[in-house]
Specification:
By secondary structure, the chain is an alpha/beta fold. It contains six helices and seven strands; from the N terminus they run βαβββαβββαααα. The chain folds into three domains: 97 residues, Rossmann fold (3-Layer(aba) Sandwich), CATH 3.40.50.720; 33 residues; 45 residues. The strands form two sheets. The protein has a five-stranded parallel β-sheet, with helices on both faces. The relative contact order is 0.10.
C-alpha cells in the first residue's frame, strides 16, 4: 500500500450520514479545506456550527456521488453503504465506509500535524482505536517545533539548489540531527553547500 497525503483544498467531498462519526469525518475534511456536502435525514447537533459544509436533510439517493471526488459514508446501514461504494467505484470516486474496511477504496489514517509535518498511522481499517493509540504515543515523543524544523530544512534545500548543487548528494540525516540539536541556531548558519 502506498501512503498518500491528499491536498483537499477546494475539493468537493460528500459525507453520507449525520451522526457523531459522520461529523468527525466531515469536520476533518472541512479542516483540510474541502468543500463538504453532508446528506442525512437527521444531523448531530455539532453540524450546525461546522464551517465549509452544506447540509442536505434527506436520505441518500442513487446518483448523489456524482460530481464528488471523495465520498465517506457513515450511515451504519450496510445496504446503503454498499450502494454508495458500488456507485462511487463505477464513477471512479474514492469511497470510504466508516467501520467497514471491505467497502473502502481508501483508508483514513490517524494523524498528528505540526504545520507541514504530518505523521500518519493506519491499520487499513482493521483497528482505528489502535491507530489512534499509536498516533498519540508517537506524537508524545516528537519535538514540539517540527513545523519550524521543516521550514529550516526547506530553506537549506532551496539554498543548496540556488547554488546549483543536487540535493540528492547531501547528507540529510546529519543536517536533520544538527537542526534538532539544542544548539541548532548556531549550526544553521554553518550549513551552505556542505553535505
Amino acid at each position: 500500500m502506498l501512503p498518500i497525503i491528499l491536498d483537499l483544498t477546494g475539493r468537493k467531498a460528500l459525507v453520507v450520514g449525520g451522526g457523531r462519526i459522520a461529523y468527525r469525518k466531515a469536520k476533518a475534511l472541512a479542516d483540510e479545506g474541502a468543500h463538504v456536502t453532508v446528506i442525512s435525514p437527521d444531523f448531530y447537533e455539532e453540524f450546525s456550527t461546522m464551517p465549509n459544509a452544506t447540509l442536505v436533510q434527506r436520505t441518500y439517493e442513487a446518483g448523489d456521488t456524482e460530481g464528488f471526488q471523495l465520498v465517506i459514508t457513515a450511515t451504519g446501514n450496510h445496504a446503503v453503504d454498499q450502494l454508495i461504494y458500488d456507485e462511487g467505484n463505477a464513477r471512479g470516486t474514492w469511497v470510504n465506509s466508516a467501520d467497514d474496511p471491505e467497502r473502502c477504496s481508501f483508508y483514513l489514517a490517524a494523524t498528528h500535524r505540526d504545520g507541514n509535518v504530518i505523521v500518519a498511522v493506519s491499520t487499513e481499517g482493521k483497528s482505528p482505536a489502535l491507530a489512534s493509540h499509536l498516533r498519540n504515543t508517537i506524537a508524545e515523543q516528537l519535538p514540539k517545533n517540527l513545523a519550524d524544523i521543516a521550514i529550516e530544512l526547506d530553506r537549506q534545500r532551496s539554498e543548496i539548489k540556488d547554488q546549483g548543487v543536487s540535493t540528492e548528494s547531501i547528507n540529510w540525516g546529519r543536517r536533520i540531527r544538527e537542526v534538532l540539536s539544542p544548539s541548532s541556531t548556531k549550526t544553521r548558519r554553518r550549513f551552505s553547500r556542505r553535505g
